[in-house]
Amino acid sequence: MLEEPLFLDQLTTVPANGVGLAVLGHPIKHSISPQLHGAALDKLSQKEPEFKHWKYQKIEVIPDLLPEALPRLANLGYRGLNLTIPHKVDVLPLIDSVDPQAKIMGAVNTLSWENNGWKGYNTDGVGLSRAVSNAFGKDLKDFNVLILGAGGASRAAVSQCLVEGCQNLAIYNRSIDRANQLLEILKTNGLSQEIVILDHPVNPFENTNSEILIINATSLGLQLSDVSPIDLNAFPKSVCVYDMVYNPPVTKLLKQAKEKHYSCSNGLGMLVGQAARSLEIWTGREISENAMRQGAKLALF
Fold first, then answer.
1. Residue 9, class by beta-carbon neighbours within 10 Å (0-12 exposed, 13-18 middle, 19+ buried)?
2. Would the N or C end of the chain have less CB density within 10 A of its end CB?
3. Mean pLDDT in the chain?
4. What order of strands is seen across the sheet that includes strand 78-83?
5. CA 172 to chain centroid
6. Residues involved in catalysis
7. How far is C-alpha 292 from the chain's CA centre?
């Protein structure tokens, strides 16, 4: 059973020998981030006991209270924050500096208290990159990539694919306008590579030889009643499928991929990878992704 989130008026000062960490969102009750980070901090504390005093919590913060939350948390002794819906973009004018890759994405999911101010990072792209490498034994640069969706998750995926230099990139989204808005944001932030935009599910890579990676960056699959975001019958046998959804662990998209014997993976690896990178930023230590993965599985299953 997931623990209840805290609210700003319930927070107290972090002990002098401790460090406060948290994830902020609205809603946030569903988050399993405390279990991931708690497991990794437990592992760290076996060699370095001071990490026993680092605590990670989830805090419900409505959008109107975000400007108030950031200085309050800093004053209470919080030094690392994760951000989820709906704060990843709205936080940008409220922080002191932004990491270059997060600036390209136009969104941050991690804040670190540095030089008396909050610095923003985005670890979602790194999380995806690590997950793809672990799942398929290849890097993003080795694939032709088709990304499904044009929302916030897609923004991180598209940016990471371009930064790493994937072979070719296409986006399938039912709304061409929304997909073009995403491209404009990325172009404004410094990415100008050619991207194919699709409003119907076809294989855009028929004339290239590189293996195809399909990444589901939509929310389709979160509910058991959801339809699959795409029919895999339009693609050849060499397709790899990565679904960012991790709960349920097998979506309709992954079920079809398994039936066709395609290489596939759910989003648990990305969840772990982005969380590990956040904790690396805050601690300056190498983080055990295995410990985080075990923490996630205990929370989910």
1. exposed
2. N
3. 93
4. 6-7, 54-60, 19-25, 78-83, 110-114, 117-121, 97-98
5. 19
6. 88
7. 15
